[in-house]
Design a protein that fits this description.
six-stranded mixed sheet; Alpha-Beta Plaits; alpha+beta; about 400 residues; Aminopeptidase; four-stranded antiparallel sheet; about 30% helix; binds zinc ion
Length: about 400
């Protein structure tokens, strides 16, 4: 990676896509293309040359958050520009995921939209300011965090470490709209424990699959109905679903184990705690009518929901910036989650803004329109200069 600041976001995007950072999803992280550490190291080496103070965190073994700090003229105020470093897997992709190719004004490659396009634009914005010999008005943090795609672990660990900024922009493919509100999610593994027996006499065992089926009926029935009762004016109702079921070993054995993976989308105002309490209450009701039911519930992932105020001082500043550059500033509510939820939960004013489309994120031929990347770079640079 070049050590002199380059304000061309396309050059950055090529380098970012060519450095694979696939989320290992629990698998090994020591071999490419998996893990964020290589990408974050490469960024750190460059940003250090630009005068940044570098800090790494390791929220998961071998997986890092990078915090690059550029001191501003006013070091009491700070703006964070944040992106996640991980991408989804490359399974089923119809293009070469790590050889960036430009065609018809688009750059193709894994992560181009989600979310290396935004990261490239942030790097170019900073470079433009630094190469002019400018010092930003306030301190600027460029943060690249890990494991967004599997539970936003990096952003939550960043907040747990006590890191704070006075405002934040999270780079995700919002189509250059300003996302002020999005859903959150909490995910669970629910292990149902039964007792094995020969299938010639099931009464000698406890069928964990049949027990799990009772729980699924409860989740899809009374619990889903209760959850759907409360809606959000822009996001609609909260939802719950069972996405994975594993159980049994062979057809003539009463299964002693069945595991469900449960996905619960959260509305602003709901938290992992409130959703877990609600789920537990329904599980207790199933257990009350079924003394043989034995289970263990584990929370595996948590993305807090986002609901920022567009009319706040920072909201109006972001709006003004986007309107100045693009001629149009639209606030939006999104069904997906992002690192912004953790920052919002910690009290940081935050909006999500970036180039690219969520339709292109995770897709088999992921690409990004380069015009949008250039526009986003201008927006980020203007915001850095405007922020006080
Ligand atoms: Zn993303």
């Amino acid at each position: 990676m070049s050590t002199t600041p380059s304000n061309d976001p396309v050059e950055w995007l090529k380098q970012l896509v060519a450095c694979p950072s696939v989320n290992p999803r629990g698998g090994p992280i020591d071999a490419p293309p998996f893990g964020e550490a290589r990408l974050n190291k490469m960024l750190a080496d460059t940003l250090q040359h630009w005068g940044a103070d570098i800090e790494f965190q390791e929220p998961l073994p071998g997986r890092t958050n990078l915090i690059a700090r550029f001191a501003g003229r006013d070091t009491d105020r700070s703006l964070m520009l944040e992106c996640h470093s991980d991408t989804v897997s490359v399974e089923g992709m119809t293009i070469d995921p790590f050889i960036p190719r430009i065609r018809d004004g688009r750059l193709y490659g894994r992560g181009a939209s989600d979310t290396k396009g935004a990261m490239a634009a942030m790097l170019a914005a900073l470079a433009e300011i630094l190469e002019n010999g400018e010092k930003p008005p306030t301190t600027v943090y460029l943060v690249a965090s890990c494991n967004e795609e599997q539970g936003a672990t990096g952003s939550r660990a960043l907040m747990e470490s006590g890191f704070r900024s006075d405002a934040a922009i999270v780079g995700e493919p919002t189509g250059l709209r300003i996302v002020d509100t999005h859903k959150g999610a909490v995910r669970f593994e629910l292990d149902v424990i039964g007792r094995a027996a020969h299938s010639s006499d099931p009464s000698q065992g406890i069928n964990a699959i049949s027990q799990a089926a009772q729980i699924i009926r409860c989740i899809d029935g009374p619990l889903a109905a209760e959850i759907a009762h409360h809606g959000h004016p822009r996001l609609g109702p909260a939802v719950i679903s069972v996405g994975v079921i594993r159980g049994g070993s062979q057809v003539n054995v009463i299964p002693d184990h069945c595991t469900l993976e449960i996905d619960r989308r959260l509305l602003p105002g709901e938290t992992a705690e409130t959703a877990t309490a609600q789920l537990r209450q329904h599980l207790d009701e199933v257990a009350a009518g079924n003394p043989l039911l034995e289970y263990q519930l584990t929370q595996t992932q948590y993305y807090p929901a986002l609901e920022s105020d567009p009319h706040s001082a920072f909201g109006e500043m972001v709006q003004k910036t986007v309107r100045t550059i693009t001629g149009n500033a639209v606030f939006d509510a999104a069904p997906w989650g992002s690192d912004a939820g953790a920052f919002h939960a910690a009290g940081i004013p935050v909006f999500v803004f970036g180039p690219g489309s969520i339709r292109q994120a995770h897709s088999a031929d992921e690409f990004i329109e380069l015009n949008a990347v250039h526009t986003a770079a201008k927006v980020y640079a203007d915001l850095i200069r405007r922020f006080r």
